Amino acid sequence: MEKRVAIVGAGTSGLLACKYTLQKGFNPTVFEAKESVGGLWTHTIESTKLQNAKETYQFSDFPWPSSVQEVFPTHTQVLRYLESYAQHFGIIPYIKFNSKVINIDYVGESYEEMESWDQWGGTGKPFGSRGKWHILVQDTKSCSTEAYQFEFVVLCIGRFSGLPNIPEFPPDQGPEVFNGKVIHSMDYSDMDKVSAAELIRRKRIAVVGSLKSAIDIAAECANANGVEYPCTLIQRTAHWFLPSGSLWGVSLGFLCFNRFSELLVHKPGETFPYKFLATMLSPLRWAVSKFAESYLRWKSPLKKYGVIPKHSFLQDFSSCRIGMLPEKFYDKVDEGSLVLKKSQSFSFYKEGLIINGEEPQQLKADLVILATGYKGDQKLKNMFESQIFRKYIVGSATSIVPLYRQIIHPRIPQVAVIGYAESYFNLGTSEIRCQWLAHFLDGNLELPRIRDMEKEIIMWENNMKQYDGRYFRNSGIASSNIWYNDQLCKDMGCKHKRKKGIFAEYFQPYGPLDYAGLLSK
To answer: Molecular function (GO) terms listed (predicted)?
Structure first.
């Protein structure tokens, strides 16, 4: 049978999926809705920088150019790096630009037959079923559509774009009663530098949101308008943000990103010795969290402005909600160009916002920017034409998106998802996933039975609920990232302990270069 592979998206995950399937002798087709590679990095706000030090955000076989001296490269430098990678490995010819995938539809076995399968796809093989995926693609220039057929589809569509999360309001309390302008952070990020600067110039701006995009946009507006037109940041939940990559002079990598740090937490499928260690070392885990919190309380005026998070540093870390503060963020708050307000809800009136609380406050505004996130699960769901597959892929409100190894859905044949589950090393984690997937497509890896994969998924879900709290649906694997990589390495028959010497193995931070040449060892 034919083994045609389609890849949806040409961001970091899509480029990696293309590169590693090419290495295995496949001839993939990549569908990209935009005119260039880079995914999220093609539409960011002007001040966006890489949150990771560049050494932790790089391809294992393609270093950053020596011309990039910054520890945290700008979004332009990151985009050029991704473009260079695509050029270097000959990926560009395989990409169909301006090609938006509308949906994918599986045509083959009946749902009744698929329900009876004991093995994924009936055989446990990547091309084992007789079905094909019909892909409907729209040309974003001409708006014409064309249908394609493939045996396997890799969805690399990301979760932080495309489908914004817009708050709902009671009648006559939403944006329709407001005389100003309301946009989502996605719309602001899509603007060019000149248009964005003109939009915010000399305006009273309210930014709604609690995470990184809200913080960055608010800081950018404060820089542009100063104290004459202060920007107000409205947050529902305060989170822990880092002013730098160290805590009390100790690199975050030595506290959170080495193998020893993972001995302090329980891990999915752990054996008794690991379970015993995690239990015995739980006081140390608590101490590390308090160590971080004490530094952040000391370094930033959190108490002064009422933004001390009510949850632990560990929970924010585990659910991938830790972010880097923009430069001189609290200096802007001190001078008055940025105003912080907390509120569980808000509504609109003619001249601005009503911030609800014990005493509702009116806030006059000309522009409201909703940095309220994205509906990543709905975006993934909408890719499928089948209502049954839509139900399968999103799980329920009390479960994670059910993916084995965060890649394969046990009951949807011949599809893989790359880049949905979160980590602090998304590029490096996606690279290992794509190597795992290419290994599987080439017939060198066997999947467990469907019910065993589902048991594995539930183990990971329970672990995420334990450490990520109410944010478990984000599928954050930060607290067990090395453990997760170990599973992928073992599946591929690769050495999972990658460092030289026991001290380095347990106490030095892990990063992308530790997995260089993964399939050659």
So the answer is: flavin adenine dinucleotide binding; N,N-dimethylaniline monooxygenase activity; NADP binding
